[in-house]
Amino acid sequence: PRLEDGSETVKKELARIIGQLSCIQSDLSQLSDTQTRSTPAPEILCHKLSLAAEHAGNTLPSLKATVVKPFLPLLEPQAPSSVKQAFLEALPHLCQHVNLVDGDSGSQEVLCALIGLMEDSDPVVRIRFSQSVRFLLTETTRNSEQGSLNELLVARLKEAFNNAKLKRDDDLRNTLILTTGEIG
């Protein structure tokens, strides 16, 4: 991936398609050409592809979290908010294909990066995380490692809430309350 590219647009598109990339890697989809023969155009400039998924969302994740690790810079604190939001929008599809609760170091690293978004400086990213956390939790109901994710989430929520309390950051506390509500 072109993660070193300075363009926010490139990073946002990489984040947006991470779910589809994981779908392709899991061999549950097929790329097809959407260009019609009636409008011949230079292939290099005008080639369009579509992704046809061959699953109904009820497959078990077959990929290790290491496939996501190269994309973790897209979730770092200095990354643009639009990039983080695009990554979170791709999370439902990503969770269908990538085992994020495997318990290995790769899974822990990805989960920590995602969970860190609950304290992001942008309230829109924090709200988007609270809306997306259910996809992580849905993933854990299919896996025996559910306890470790729940423990990690609760520990980070407590820590974040205490930090927000010390800083008197009411906006952060409010989004953490939203996240807590989503977890149940």
TrEMBL record:
It comes from the Eukaryota. InterPro entries: ARM-like, ARM-type_fold. This is Serine/threonine-protein kinase ATR-like. It comes from Notothenia coriiceps.
